[in-house]
Amino acid sequence: MSSIENFAVVGASGTVGIPITTALLSAGFHVTAITSSTSTSTSTFPPSVTIARVNYHTALVARFMPSEFGIDLAGCCDTQIGALLGQKREIIEYLGKLAGKYDWFTWTALSTGSFIDWLQYFVSHFTAYIHIVLKPTDMFEMHFENKMARIYDSGNKLYYPSTLSFVGKSVAAVLKKPAETANKYLTVASFTTSQREVLKIVEEMGERFQFIPGETSNLEIIGDEKMARGDGDAFVEYLIRHVFGDGAGGAIEDNAAGLLGLEEEDLRTVVKRVLSEL
Ligand SMILES: NC(=O)c1ccc[n+]([C@@H]2O[C@H](COP(=O)([O-])OP(=O)(O)OC[C@H]3O[C@@H](n4cnc5c(N)ncnc54)[C@H](OP(=O)(O)O)[C@@H]3O)[C@@H](O)[C@H]2O)c1
Prior knowledge:
The chain is of the alpha/beta class. Helices cover 37% and strands 15% of the residues. Strand 1 (6-10), helix 1 and strand 2 form a beta-alpha-beta unit. Helix 1 packs across helix 6 (164-176) and helix 9 (219-228) packs antiparallel against helix 10 (234-244).
């Protein structure tokens, strides 16, 4: 399989698009940022990025990476969150069919777990909002102004988050290994951890939080009520239930970081960085 040199990023100005673009540039790829002709984004890109404003149309693409970057679809088939992610599942099936039909087409999907950076993201961008409600984060619910942290269920359920920079590096690593990653759904993560493990590290760094116990058992009902009202925010309840609720699953079974030649990150270092950026 020939090597990949050029990669187009759709949504390069988005939450995931920015670290992916950064990592691709660092790894030496030529990046084209594809933005819709109707986009209102005011994002700017490094000078080496080619910007293409397009009406989306067909193109010959040797490797397609869908906008996956979330929880492992195989691990949530029979859950409400799994149902909400049905379109992502359909895309993977469709890509499989295309790869079977065209020998020039390949795909790779990356499940990356939740983004641990979003603690910082929520606090810096939605401070007013989290004053009003306890906004869930990917570490756990933390109310920084009042030093309150919500721990769901036992807090010991394992989950596998990634940093946004790790997501970017993983995409670049996939493209550096086109043969090994062709037509695969891979799961990567910065590390496997639990709410209590993260909180312990936060406290060892001198932060003190009041705990608010949270139950995930009724979150599906709350989510279902929201869905009945047409409120897609039900995603949050379903996600918390799936990621933090006690029960089976949680630990990453086969971290593809090894296949991609990446090392897992150090949890303590990441928590320290996220806290320093608040
Ligand atoms: N694991 C996690 O914790 C987590 C968290 C958030 C997101 N995600 C996943 O990451 C992926 C990307 O999410 P994101 O938050 O980065 O997205 P985003 O910031 O909402 O959107 C990124 C950009 O995509 C472009 N875009 C939006 N809709 C589009 C469409 N229908 N067709 C083509 N381009 C479109 C827009 O760029 P232009 O205006 O330039 O066209 C937009 O700025 C999704 O699959 C999402 O589920 C995972």
